[in-house]
Write a structure and sequence with these properties.
The chain has 190 residues and is mainly alpha-helical. The chain is 38% helix and 9% strand.
Length: 190
C-alpha cells in the first residue's frame, strides 16, 4: 500500500507493532511512519483489497489452539470481539477451522464502537447471560486490557500475541493473568 502511494515500505516488525486498533488506524500509522503528510485518498480501500486477497496466506492458529478451544467450549460460551471487519474475521475463522467454537462475533464494522469501548463486550455478556464476574477477555494488547477494565471483567493476556509488547508492567494488576501459550489457558481455567 505504501509503495503504491509513493512511500518506502516499512519493515514487517514496525508494521506489526502498529496493529490493534483496526485497519483505518493501521493505515494512518503506516502512512505517518513512512513520512506521508496525509493518508492518501484510496489508501484504506487499497489496503483492505490487498488484505482481503491475502489474509489467509500466512495466518495459522497458535499451536494447540483447536484443542484448547474444544476444551473451553465444553464449559463456557465463546465469542470473538475484534476491531477487524466482520467479513475478514469470519473468513479467517473459517479458514483456520476455528469458527465452530464461537457462538457470536462482534466485529469492528458492526453496530458497536470499536474496542476499547466496552459496548460490544457488554452486548456479548447480555446475549449469553454471562455476568461480569464470570467473564474473561482473552487478548494480547493494551486495547484488550482497556476494554476489560472498561467492562469490569477479568483479563487474560497472551504474552505471545501481536500487541503484548505495547503493555507496561505497571499497567497490570495482581489478578490479571498472563499466559505464554494457548494451553496455559487450560491450567488457569481448571
Amino acid at each position: 500500500m505504501l509503495a503504491r502511494f509513493g512511500a518506502v515500505p516499512l519493515p514487517e516488525d514496525r508494521v506489526i507493532a502498529m496493529v490493534g486498533d483496526g485497519a483505518p488506524m493501521l493505515v494512518q500509522r503506516a502512512c505517518v511512519a513512512a513520512g506521508l503528510s496525509l493518508v492518501p485518498e484510496g489508501a484504506l480501500g487499497y489496503f483492505l483489497e490487498v488484505y482481503d486477497t491475502h489474509l489467509l496466506d500466512n495466518t495459522r492458529p497458535y499451536p494447540a489452539t483447536h484443542d484448547v478451544l474444544k476444551s473451553v467450549a465444553q464449559k463456557a460460551t465463546l465469542a470473538v470481539l475484534t476491531n477487524k471487519p466482520e467479513r475478514a474475521s469470519i473468513r479467517i475463522l473459517e479458514g483456520t477451522g476455528l469458527l465452530p467454537f464461537f457462538e457470536h462475533i462482534v466485529a469492528g464494522d458492526g453496530p458497536w464502537p470499536r474496542k476499547p469501548d466496552p459496548q460490544g463486550l457488554e452486548w456479548l455478556m447480555s446475549k449469553t447471560g454471562t455476568s461480569r464476574s464470570s467473564t474473561v477477555l482473552v487478548g494480547d494488547s493494551i486495547v484488550d486490557l482497556r476494554t476489560a477494565r472498561a467492562a469490569g471483567v477479568r483479563i487474560c493476556l497472551a504474552r505471545y500475541g501481536f500487541g503484548f509488547d505495547s503493555l507496561l508492567a505497571e499497567q497490570l494488576h495482581s489478578d490479571d493473568r498472563v499466559i505464554d501459550s494457548p494451553s496455559d489457558l487450560l491450567i488457569w481455567e481448571a
